[in-house]
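dumping this here before i forget
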Amino acid sequence: MKKNLLLIFLMLAGILQAQDQKESYSFSLQQAIEHALQNNYSAINANRDIAAAKKKKWETTATGLPQISGVANYTNNFQLQQNQFTVNGQTTTIQFGSYNAADASLRLNQLIFDGSYIVALQASKTYLKYYENAKQKSNTEIREMVINAYGNVLLAEESIAILEKNKTTLSKVLGDTQETFKNGLIEEENVEQLQITLATVNSNLNNATRLKDIALKMLKFALGMDLEDSLTLTDKLDGLTVSNLDLALSQQGFAVTNNINYQIAKNFTEQRSLELKLEKSKALPSLSAGLNYGYNAFNSEFKLFTADQKWYNYSGLSVNLNVPIFSSFGRQARTQQAKIALDQAKTQLTQTEQQLKLEYERAKSEYEFSIEEFETSKSNLNLAERIERKQQIKFTEGLSSSFDFSEAQRQLYTAQQNYLQSMVNIINKKAALEKILNKN
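structure:
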């Protein structure tokens, strides 16, 4: 009995441990993008939209194909209808019908011609194309979102590393300065100034640690991962920066027709054009045919399904022609509305084209500036490091005040953050330019 209880306990513990176990991932930036395109929540629903659009297209197609329906019914006339007849002055009451009646039939309907059906087939293709374009747009947005989120995590990691290095260096200088103060060789203000700077560095380090946690969770969300899963980034910020330095990208020109937003706007114009054709097609006649075949039976008693019950068959062919003649100008009004909507869509297409050209020029300029800013911040960082080292030596030897040393430190810390941010800007601005260019 004890062995059985122990076995059950171990099984339950194993199940609970399996439930608590989280996934572990390790991604380069490209791997992260590929994972997000498959697992991001918007990407998953975009695929479902395409699947639903394909079903909708077949639904439209099926309306013009043969339609077969079966009908069966049973009626129990427990009180038959009576009617009176007068013959030679004598009134006679007669019952009509049977107490029990049954009917079973098959009906075949086929659309032969309908202008609105032809337009609907064209519209179903445009409808599907819209969701395919929407999926592509979703992919470009997910790609840019992952790149930005990935870069923010790397920025936080590099910020933490630099702040920890600054903290180590500053703590050593503060310790040496405190010893010098104890020996009465410098004023207490020098120690207090360094303590203020160290407190600021500690505060920034704590904040950078929190920001890294938030940035990592935002990246996991973009990837479609559980926020509690483990994620390791294999790319480094400096490596990504170098790989994204590509001035030729901004010199290759812009084909607006390749942009997904332009294609969606064009798709919308095609839809409005088809809506106009649909309204015009409603003035055309429609033709359909139907074939009906069935059996019915009657009996005063419920013996419809016995061997001696007689069933009577019937069949018929029908052709239906519907010719619109006059609609009190309602059809003309709907056609004019559709034409106005088409004109509006054409104007929106032109507006989208001009807006995209403007966005391209802005994205191109911002990317080129990010490269210039990177080179400038890199040079400024080298200068700030040399200045800080010189001021540290002067301060240690008593040739410089704590204020001058602290000012050099603040200048260095600012240059460090500007340099890191400039690297992230190159990555992000290139992603924005590639989005406009529809580059994957």
